[in-house]
Amino acid sequence: MNEPRQCEEKLDLVIYKYPQSVSLIAPEFMKIGVESTITCQVLDVAPARYLSVKLYKGDEQLGNRSFTHNSTRFPVNESVPFPVTPTRADNGAEYTCVAELQLGPGGPKPNPTKRSPPLKIPVVYKPSLLSADEENVEVRKGGSIVLKCSADGNPAPTYEWKYPKADNVQEITKDGVSTVNITRASSSNDRVYECHAKNRYGVATKNITLTVKGRGQFVCWVVVIGVGVLVFLGLVVGFICYGKRAT
């Protein structure tokens, strides 16, 4: 009798382990234009050679790291640093780390994936003015005017005005805008007002030159115009009278 033949075939079997956890290690804050490091930490995952670690800012992928040369079959821990140089627009952005096991055509679909909790990292920067740093304004003597100064910065800037103090001048800061309010303007208010917006990372300075126009100038123009009108009327009357005599 013929004995049954045994068939032997080598199977490419991959035993994988879903990551125990995925997290982000990041600085407390980042400084605009300065490179910082955000690290993805993946714990207890196997096999490492199929692991792909990605860092996202919102929906934008910032980096990707694979471990194809790691032949370890047992669960491992991986810490993957990614360099990040933030801009002002990145303040308040959410960062996420994604660990993915790319097990090939025979593996489960979609690929086993685990995400870290999102993390917001503040971006700090020195103040920058929201209007021109030089300004010239005018007010009529006895009138009122408000000088404004505002800047964007993180942390939010504080404001300091420099000018000779006067009883008719009041400073008010509200909702990120600092103002100098002048009432009953006089020649003593005619000067340069300096506004300094500052935080721990720098200072932005705005200069406002205020010119107080005297009422006397307006009165003079009224007198000149009035005299001109009278002279004109006198000439017209004289011309009419002369015409009557001539007839």
From TrEMBL:
SUPFAM superfamilies: Immunoglobulin. One of its GO terms (molecular function) is integrin binding. The chain crosses the membrane at residues 221-242. It is a single-pass type I membrane protein. The keyword Disulfide bond applies. It is found in: Membrane. Residues 127-211 form the Ig-like domain. Keywords: Cell adhesion, Disulfide bond, Glycoprotein, Immunoglobulin domain, Membrane, Repeat, Signal, Transmembrane, Transmembrane helix. It holds the Pfam family Ig_3. GO terms for biological process: cell-cell adhesion. GO terms for cellular component: membrane. It comes from the Eukaryota. The keyword Repeat applies. SMART domains: IG, IGc2. PANTHER family: INTERCELLULAR ADHESION MOLECULE, INTERCELLULAR ADHESION MOLECULE 5. This is Titin-like. The lineage of its organism: Eukaryota, Metazoa, Chordata, Craniata, Vertebrata. The gene is ROBO2.
